[in-house]
Amino acid sequence: MASNVNPTVRRRRLGQELRRLRELKGMTAEEVAERLLVSQSKISRLENGRRSISQRDVRDLCGVYEVEDQRIVDSLMQMAKDSRQQGWWHAFGDIPYSVYIGLETDAESLRVYEPQIITGLLQTRPYAEAIVQGGSPESSEQDNDKRVEVRLRRQSRITAEQDPLRLWVVLDEAALHRVVGSRQVMREQLEHVLELSQLPHITVQVLPFEVGAHAGINGQYSILEFADAADSSVVYIEGVTSDLYLEKPHDVQKYTVMYEHLRAQSLNVEQSRRLVERLAKEYAR
Fold first, then answer.
1. Residue-level pLDDT at 2
2. 177: helix, coil or strand?
3. What is the dihedral sign for C-alpha 41, 42, 46, 50?
4. Locate the HTH cro/C1-type domain: which residues (predicted)?
5. Rounded CA gap, 115 and 118, in Å?
């Protein structure tokens, strides 16, 4: 059904296939761009799935790559058509990290390191409202409300009854002590984290202050993995004006090893729960 098509994932898969066809032809992105009288950056964006792909783009590229099997051409054309459909998040207008939402929506598992705040998928509404307002002081109330609603809608991936997102979160202890909103908001937020951490597909660990310098010292990042073998893992690093997506195996492997170090340096699951529970009680005083 078209309504179940994830346009972000379709663009990624189509881009990967187009890159494969180009490499089989032994051509560089620059050579293809010259043949089609377009910029090399356009070819790169089409291949990495960051740009919408039209059926005309697919037709032209298949012509350059001399694809003779019409079934392959038709399949790629259909993928291009599907990739131009809109995901649920488009109903909220221009969302800065819409590419990430598309990936998260289709991911099988997600590993997150968060040094400053409780990660978005675990946030309560009051906490999310305070985070969004504090982080975007110049945005309109309407825009901030929209961002909060999108964040809460994303959480359906971890509360789904069937095939929920497998989530592993490493929280820096600082995120537990930073008072966002109010002490009451923090108490409710930490109690919410405790409740969610009881679910079999959600794991929460706390990286304590006493660790000192650690593998995640350079900041927040996430690793997304997908059920379909055709979809490579992605490292996502959120920025203020732009985001970074790393898909090269070497990059993904490096961040994966870093994450394993973070998990090893963190309190175990039970120790983490006890710390979160203790701080939640302190916020209630």
1. 36
2. helix
3. positive
4. 18-72
5. 8
What percentage of the chain has pLDDT greater than the value 90? 47
Cβ–Cβ < 8 Å for 110, 168: yes
The 3-state DSSP class for residue 112 equals: strand
Range with the poorest average pLDDT among 5-14, 99-108, 143-152: 5-14
b/e code 6-44 from CB counts within 10 Å (16+ = b) = bbbbbbbbbbbbbbebbeeeebebeebbeeeeeeeeebb
- The position carrying tokens 């002590």 is 177
Asked if residue 104 lies in contact with residue 164, where contact means CB atoms within 8 angstroms, the answer is no
Spatial separation of the C-alpha atoms in residues 79 and 68, rounded to whole Å? 18
Q: Are 128 and 114 in contact (CB under 8 A)?
A: no
**CA-to-CA distance for 241 and 24, rounded, in angstroms?**
36
